[in-house]
C-alpha cells in the first residue's frame, strides 16, 4: 500500500522525541512529511484528522511510566479514519513501563491501525553531566531510527491493504501501572544575575507556566516539570533546586547507569 504523507505528531519539550521521529521520517522517506508539534499549546488546540494515503507517526516522552496526561484531550479528539499508525515512546533510560501499550491502545481507539511500535532512549529531562542518557538520541540511535523508518516502509509496501496486518504486540500490561499525576513542585532556581529576560523560557514552555515578561515568575500549578525552560536557557540561568526533582536526578544517576538500547515491534 502507498503512503504519500507521514504526519509526524510529537510532544517533545526537550526535543529528543522530535529528533527520533525526524530520523524515522528520513528512513521512511514519504513524498511529504508534515510535522504536527503538539508541544505547542496553540497546536494542541486543533484536532487532527487523518485522510487516505496518510500515516500517523506519533511520539511521546514517557512520564512516570505513562503517556503524558496533558495530551488526553488532544488524543481524544484525534480522528484516525483507518490510517496506519506508528507509535514511539521515548524514555530517559529508566523504564517505559506501559507507556507504549497505552499509546498503541489510544491510537487504535481513535480509529488508527497500529502497524509498528518502538521505544527509544532520550536524554533524561532531569539530566546533569553525570546522567547515563546524556546526549541521546546519539548517532547510533539516529541510525537505528532511520533503519526503523525503512523497515516500516518495506512492511507497508509488502501488503495491499491494512486488513493483512495482524494485531501489533508491544510490551505492557492492563491495567497500566505508572502514574498520571505529576509533582506539583517549586523546583526551578533562576539566577537573576544571569537571566537577561529574553523570554525564551516562556516561549518554549508547553503549558504557558512562565510569565513572558519575567521568567522568574512560574506557575507551579501549571508546570509539568518537563525542564524545557532549563535546557533551552541560552544563559544557563535556570537549574533544578534541591527537592524532589533533584532527588529524582540523583536516583537516575545512581540507579540507571547501564545503557539501554532502542526496541522495535513490527
Ligand atoms: C515528569 C517526567 C517524568 C518522567 N518519567 C520517566 C520515566 O518514567 N521513565 C524514564 O525512563 N524517563 C522518564 N522521564 C524522562 C523522559 O521520558 C525523557 O527524558 C524523554 O527523552 C524526554 O522527551 P523530550 O525530549 O521529547 O521532552 C520523565 C521526564 C519527566 C519530565
* Helix amount: 25-40%
Q: Main sheet?
A: 6 strands, mixed
Which geometry do the CA atoms define?
globular
Which architecture of the largest domain per CATH? Answer: 3-Layer(aba) Sandwich
CATH topology of the largest domain: Rossmann fold
Class by SSE composition: alpha/beta
Order of helices and strands: EHEHEHEHEHEHHEHE
Please identify the top-level CATH class of the largest domain: Alpha Beta
Rg measurement, Å: 19 Å
How many strands?
A: 8
Total domain units:
2
Number of helical stretches of at least 4 residues:
8
Mean pLDDT: 97
InterPro entries: 4Fe4S_Fe-S-bd, 4Fe4S_Fe_S_CS, EFR1-like, Fe-S_Ferredoxin, Flavodoxin/NO_synth, Flavoprotein-like_sf
Protein name: 4Fe-4S dicluster domain-containing protein
GO molecular function, one term: metal ion binding
Keywords: 4Fe-4S, Electron transport, Iron, Iron-sulfur, Metal-binding, Repeat, Transport
Structure description:
With 266 residues, this protein is of the alpha/beta class. It has two domains: 5-176 and 259-265, Rossmann fold (3-Layer(aba) Sandwich); 188-242, Alpha-Beta Plaits, CATH 3.30.70.20. 28% of the residues lie in helices and 17% in strands. It contains eight helices and eight strands, in the order E-H-E-H-E-H-E-H-E-H-E-H-H-E-H-E. It has helices spanning 16-28, 41-44, 72-76, 99-109, 139-157, 200-204, 228-232, 244-255, and strands spanning 5-10, 32-37, 54-61, 84-91, 113-121, 188-190, 238-240, 263-265. The strands form two sheets. Strands 2-1-3-4-5-8 form a six-stranded mixed sheet, sandwiched between helices. Helix 1 (16-28) packs across helix 5. It is globular and about 60 Å long. 44% of the residues are buried. The model has no long low-confidence stretch (mean pLDDT 97). Bound molecules: flavin mononucleotide (FMN). Flavin mononucleotide is lined by residues 12-17, 61-65, 90-95, 122-125, 182, 225-226.
Amino acid at each position: 500500500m502507498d503512503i504519500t504523507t507521514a504526519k509526524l505528531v510529537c510532544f517533545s519539550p526537550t526535543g529528543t522525541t522530535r529528533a527520533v521521529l525526524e530520523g524515522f521520517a528520513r528512513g521512511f522517506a514519504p513524498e511529504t512529511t508534515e510535522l504536527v508539534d503538539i508541544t505547542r499549546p496553540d497546536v494542541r488546540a486543533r484536532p487532527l484528522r487523518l485522510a487516505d494515503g496518510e500515516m500517523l507517526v506519533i511520539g511521546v516522552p514517557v512520564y512516570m511510566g505513562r503517556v503524558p496526561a496533558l495530551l488526553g484531550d488532544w488524543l481524544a479528539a484525534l480522528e484516525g479514519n483507518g490510517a496506519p499508525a506508528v507509535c514511539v515512546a521515548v524514555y530517559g533510560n529508566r523504564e517505559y513501563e506501559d507507556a507504549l501499550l497505552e499509546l498503541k491502545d489510544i491510537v487504535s481507539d481513535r480509529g488508527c491501525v497500529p502497524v509498528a511500535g518502538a521505544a527509544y532512549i532520550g536524554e533524561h529531562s532531569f539530566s546533569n553531566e553525570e546522567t547515563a542518557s546524556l546526549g541521546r538520541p546519539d548517532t547510533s540511535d539516529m541510525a537505528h531510527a532511520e533503519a526503523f523508518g525503512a523497515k516500516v516502509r518495506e512492511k507497508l509496501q509488502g501488503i495491499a491493504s491494512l486488513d493483512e496486518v495482524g494485531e501489533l504486540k508491544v510490551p505492557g500490561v492492563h491495567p497500566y501501572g505508572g502514574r498520571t499525576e505529576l509533582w506539583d513542585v517549586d523546583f526551578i532556581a533562576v539566577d537573576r544575575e544571569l537571566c537577561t529576560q529574553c523570554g525564551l523560557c516562556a516561549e518554549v514552555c508547553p503549558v504557558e507556566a512562565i510569565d513572558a515578561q519575567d521568567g522568574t515568575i512560574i506557575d507551579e500549578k501549571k508546570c509539568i516539570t518537563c525542564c524545557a525552560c532549563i535546557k533551552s536557557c541560552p544563559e544557563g540561568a535556570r537549574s533544578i533546586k534541591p527537592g524532589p526533582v533533584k532527588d529524582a536526578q540523583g536516583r537516575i544517576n545512581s540507579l540507571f547507569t547501564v545503557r539501554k538500547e532502542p526496541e522495535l515491534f513490527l
